[in-house]
């Protein structure tokens, strides 16, 4: 494997809470109203400095999706997932988009969101 280069972003940045590696900028947020097993999440159009896991089918509240988990390039921690395919017509807008779980990232102001470990109704929960 070749050498990995970390991309530095400018502006309102979302970064890894463990190692501060940059992931995305605020201008690329599509939605702030997503939920996951650990609380709130953001849907982004683009993300950088990540690696992806294996494709898998997940049944979520919004239907069946093909997803890959995404990991921080800096420290290796799982930070969310990428939608590879949506099987429901109404969910196709998610394809190619990234979910960053709020409790795993630092916001542009350096704040760290503390999520609920018992949130129901998550898009990531098995239906």
Automatic annotation (TrEMBL):
Q: Which PROSITE patterns match?
A: YIPPEE (PS51792)
Which keywords describe this protein according to UniProt? Metal-binding, Zinc
Family (UniProt): Belongs to the yippee family.
Q: Which GO terms describe its molecular function?
A: metal ion binding
- Signal sequence coordinates: none
Yippee domain sequence ranges: 12-109
Indicate yes or no for the key word Zinc: yes
Q: Supply the Pfam families for this chain.
A: Yippee-Mis18
Under the heading PANTHER family, the entry gives: PROTEIN YIPPEE-LIKE CG15309-RELATED
Source organism of this protein record: Acer saccharum
Protein name as it appears in the record: Protein yippee-like
């Amino acid at each position: 494997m070749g050498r990995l280069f970390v991309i530095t972003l400018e502006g309102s940045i979302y970064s890894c809470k463990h190692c501060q590696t940059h992931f995305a900028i605020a201008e690329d947020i599509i939605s702030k109203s997503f939920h996951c097993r650990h609380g709130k999440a953001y849907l982004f159009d683009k993300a950088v400095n990540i690696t992806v896991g294996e494709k898998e089918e997940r049944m979520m509240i919004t239907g069946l999706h093909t997803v890959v988990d995404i990991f921080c390039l800096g420290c290796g921690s799982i930070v969310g997932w990428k939608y590879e395919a949506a099987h429901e017509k109404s969910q196709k807008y998610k394809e190619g988009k990234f979910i960053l779980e709020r409790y795993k990232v630092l916001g542009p102001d350096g704040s760290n969101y503390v999520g609920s470990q018992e949130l129901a109704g998550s898009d990531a929960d098995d239906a």
